[in-house]
């Protein structure tokens, strides 16, 4: 009897046993690795949280200590001003709970504490604490934007404290206030480490039993909170997570079942293995290659990139993350076939930059990454990013469309094994999104802890905004008057406002940027336009201008939906002027011209907002058919003190009138500016000197009911 079948059976049985043993060892090792990684990640996150608490307190304190307008008032011991601007904040206990000033004009220390009343008190802190702060401050040169910060145990709670001299941070800013150290007052503020802060930190990092203790706990992880003398005053302690052990317990029973089934089928597989071995090897090789290659571009895909990222490395490495700006708009406006061609062209241009120490991969729809290894990675990565900008500088010709592609780029550097490959990619991704948020200002951003915090803040804003869009009452519209030469109201600019039930008032520049990044801009614009329509129906004499973002304008269904909205409310489109910024002209000027033509056909007038700050030219102004030119406040603010500023604005106004455009000057904050702009020929004016953005009721009271007479504007 031929021994081959028996040998095959023996090999299969041995293989199964080795397989079972390997799985057991691998799962045990993975469990320990996950437990250790969870412990290390929690430790790093809590250390970052500790640093963030000190940074927040220091920055808050420096705002008061280096406040140029407040320095002379503190030095003159103006206790009324000091209470109104510093002490009252401590008494309210919102931003900080303790504030103490001493030194210089203060013979004794004076301070305020939460719920302590308006009268200043001495002795809120022991003298040895103030002496220790003094020792720290003596090591800091005069007139620098610096201070000292640490933790203290005060009463029954831990506080973060920060202190600095009350002085200007630039010698030439307030030269008459520079003096010796012994004549300079000091300020110290303290913020209590509240239970809500600890609970929020525990929730953010998914930690159990996070709390503050006085002594290092046994059997729990902890991070010391260091005082001014470098010794711990307390500890942040938490229960060490064990995700690997939990996973192992959950997998035990299913794994035993799988192994049992595998053993049963092993005998059946003996006969098939020999016959199909060669076919399986060939199929496996083909599948592995396909699984590691992007089908559209032929570049390595996410799986191949992750494999390279997990390889051992010596020295440094960096990840450069690139994302095509407004790629969704390209797909929506000229089709997915064109979008695919854009991705292929971008990949071909970027592939020219690779070398043996630089891997390029496409890891998502419009996302590319470079993995840079070797020495001097930061310098090489920066050069690589600039080279990528040059490669993409020439427009792409796609399906008879000329498309100017811009990419947001962010990078992160790994100098040691302390950062995992996954974290390195996440950091580069965050830096890229920061670059995307500031599109047009800086195409390349390096990762920092500030970006990490900003990402978490943006996530909170996005969540709150989604809830605000789902329920009425939080979003509103304010109107800033646009006034004619005789002081009459011509129209009012509609401006978005949001007061979140969770976050409080959120500034438009912040939540609109988040809306654009998260894909909420079109829905937000639709909601705001509905609010404007309600106000136009209630006030038939009102004309408005509305701001439309490039994302809204380029959406195929935006203009039909806009026209339908005004038709449903029976509002004449002639009462509405659409304001567009110069950024709409960058990516696809031909498509922008088409959309602007559709708006004009529907009866809207068109204004070019923030003129002079972006990309427009006289040629664009002639071709695209604007009705109004709005000169940006950055030019208006220079006319009072600069002959050059006057000449620039005068040239803009003459050019606009030569093109038969009305001129609106924005950001007027003084009567002298208004008078000079009228002399230069500005048709309309807008700014805080005329009026601030108002709720519709206040606008109606102050302006619409004055329709019979002109308001006097000094």
From TrEMBL:
InterPro entries: Cyclic-di-GMP_PDE-like (IPR050706), EAL_dom (IPR001633), EAL_sf (IPR035919), GGDEF_dom (IPR000160), Nucleotide_cyclase (IPR029787), Rev_trsase/Diguanyl_cyclase (IPR043128). Residues 458-707 form the EAL domain. Keywords: Membrane, Transmembrane, Transmembrane helix. It holds the Pfam family EAL. The chain crosses the membrane at residues 6-29, 252-273. One of its GO terms (molecular function) is cyclic-guanylate-specific phosphodiesterase activity. Residues 315-449 form the GGDEF domain. The keyword Nucleotide-binding does not apply. The keyword Transit peptide does not apply. PANTHER family: CYCLIC DI-GMP PHOSPHODIESTERASE PDED-RELATED, CYCLIC DI-GMP PHOSPHODIESTERASE PDEF. This is Bifunctional diguanylate cyclase/phosphodiesterase. It comes from Rubellimicrobium rubrum.
């Amino acid at each position: 009897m031929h021994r081959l079948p028996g040998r095959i059976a023996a090999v299969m049985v041995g293989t199964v046993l080795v397989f079972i043993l390997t799985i057991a060892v691998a799962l045990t090792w993975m469990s320990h690795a996950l437990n250790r990684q969870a412990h290390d990640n929690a430790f790093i996150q809590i250390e970052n949280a500790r640093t963030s608490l000190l940074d927040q307190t220091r920055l808050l304190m420096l705002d008061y200590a280096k406040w140029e307008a407040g320095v002379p008032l503190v030095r003159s011991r103006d206790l009324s001003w000091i209470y109104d601007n510093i002490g009252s904040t401590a008494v309210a206990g919102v931003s900080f709970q303790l504030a103490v000033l001493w030194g210089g004009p203060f013979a004794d220390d004076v301070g305020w504490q939460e719920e302590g009343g308006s009268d200043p008190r001495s002795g809120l802190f022991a003298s040895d604490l103030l002496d220790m702060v003094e020792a720290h401050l003596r090591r800091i040169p005069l007139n620098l934007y610096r201070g000292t910060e640490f933790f203290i145990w005060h009463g029954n709670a831990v506080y973060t404290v920060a202190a600095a001299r009350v002085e200007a941070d630039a010698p030439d800013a307030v030269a008459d206030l520079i003096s010796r150290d012994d004549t300079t007052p000091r300020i110290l503020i303290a913020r209590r480490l509240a239970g809500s802060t600890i609970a929020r930190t525990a929730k953010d990092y998914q930690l159990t039993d996070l709390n503050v203790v006085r002594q290092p706990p046994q059997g729990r992880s902890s991070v010391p909170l260091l005082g001014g003398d470098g010794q711990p005053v307390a500890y942040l302690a938490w229960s060490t997570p064990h995700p690997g052990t939990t996973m192992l317990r959950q997998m035990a029973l299913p794994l035993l079942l799988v192994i049992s089934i595998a053993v049963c089928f092993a005998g059946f597989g003996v006969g098939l293995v020999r016959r199909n071995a060669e076919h399986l090897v060939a199929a496996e090789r083909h599948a592995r290659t396909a699984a590691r290659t992007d089908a559209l571009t032929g570049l390595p895909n996410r799986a191949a990139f992750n494999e390279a990222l997990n390889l051992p490395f010596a020295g440094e490495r960096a990840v450069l993350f690139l994302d095509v700006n407004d790629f969704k708009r390209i797909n929506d406006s000229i089709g997915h076939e064109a979008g695919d061609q854009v991705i292929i062209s971008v990949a071909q241009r970027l592939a020219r930059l690779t070398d043996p120490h630089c891997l390029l991969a496409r890891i998502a729809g419009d996302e590319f990454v470079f993995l840079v290894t070797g020495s001097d990675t930061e310098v090489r990565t920066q050069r690589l990013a600039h080279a990528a900008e040059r490669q993409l500088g020439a427009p792409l010709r796609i399906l008879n469309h000329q498309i100017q592609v811009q990419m947001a780029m962010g990078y992160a550097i790994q100098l040691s094994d302390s950062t995992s490959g996954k974290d390195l990619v996440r950091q580069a991704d965050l830096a890229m999104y920061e670059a995307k948020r500031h599109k047009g200002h800086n195409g390349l951003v390096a990762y920092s802890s500030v970006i990490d915090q900003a990402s978490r803040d943006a996530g909170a804003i996005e969540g709150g905004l989604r809830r605000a869009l789902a329920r009425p009452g939080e979003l509103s519209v304010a109107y800033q008057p646009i006034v004619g030469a005789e002081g009459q109201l011509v129209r009012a600019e509609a401006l978005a406002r949001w007061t979140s039930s969770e976050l409080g008032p959120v500034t438009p520049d912040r939540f609109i940027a988040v809306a654009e990044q998260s894909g909420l801009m079109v829905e937000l614009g639709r909601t705001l336009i509905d609010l404007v329509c309600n106000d136009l129906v209630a006030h038939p004499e009102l004309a408005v201008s509305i701001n439309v973002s490039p994302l809204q304008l380029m959406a195929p269904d935006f203009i039909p939906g806009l026209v339908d909205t005004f038709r449903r409310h029976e509002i004449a489109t002639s009462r509405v002027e659409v304001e567009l910024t110069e950024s709409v002209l960058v990516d696809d000027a031909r498509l922008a011209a088409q959309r602007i033509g559709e708006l004009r056909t529907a009866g809207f007038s068109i204004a070019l907002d923030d003129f002079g700050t972006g990309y427009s030219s006289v040629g664009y102004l002639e071709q695209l058919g604007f009705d109004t030119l709005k000169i940006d406040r950055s030019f208006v603010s220079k006319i009072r003190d600069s002959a050059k500023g006057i000449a620039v604005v005068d040239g803009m106004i003459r050019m606009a009138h030569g093109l038969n455009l009305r001129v609106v000057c924005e950001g007027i904050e003084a009567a002298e500016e208004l008078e000079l702009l009228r002399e230069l020929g500005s048709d309309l004016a807008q700014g805080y000197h005329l009026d601030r953005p108002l709720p519709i009721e206040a606008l109606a009271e102050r302006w619409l009911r004055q329709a019979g007479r002109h308001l006097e504007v000094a």
